[in-house]
Amino acid sequence: MLYTIAVVLIVLWLLGLLTAYTAGGLVHILLVLAVVAVLLRVIRG
Q1: Residue pair 38/7 in contact by the 8 Å Cβ criterion
Q2: Over the stretch 1-45, which tens digit does the pLDDT of each residue have?
Q3: Whole-number Å distance between alpha carbons of 7 and 34
Q4: How many CB atoms lie within 10 A of CB 6?
Q5: Inter-helix orientation angle 2-19/25-44, to 10°
Q6: Of 2, 35, 43, 45, which has the fewest CB atoms closer than 10 Å, so is most exposed?
Q7: Are 4 and 22 in contact (CB under 8 A)?
Q8: d(CA 17, CA 38)
Q9: pTM value surpassing 0.85
Q10: Distance between CA atoms of 1 and 25, rounded to whole angstroms?
Q11: What is the DSSP letter of 40?
Q12: Distance between alpha carbon 6 and the CA centroid of its chain, in Å?
């Protein structure tokens, strides 16, 4: 489930970059948190 949320956030972030629409720094903070969560999951196995 955490992986799915991370993928959704990454897709939304990319769409935000492509359309030049961002909801402020919140989107980028959520993206960083999602990437960290995925990395921790991969490292832990």
Answers
A1: no
A2: 778 888 887 777 777 766 655 555 666 777 788 888 888 888 998
A3: 8
A4: 20
A5: 140
A6: 45
A7: no
A8: 21
A9: no
A10: 24
A11: H
A12: 5
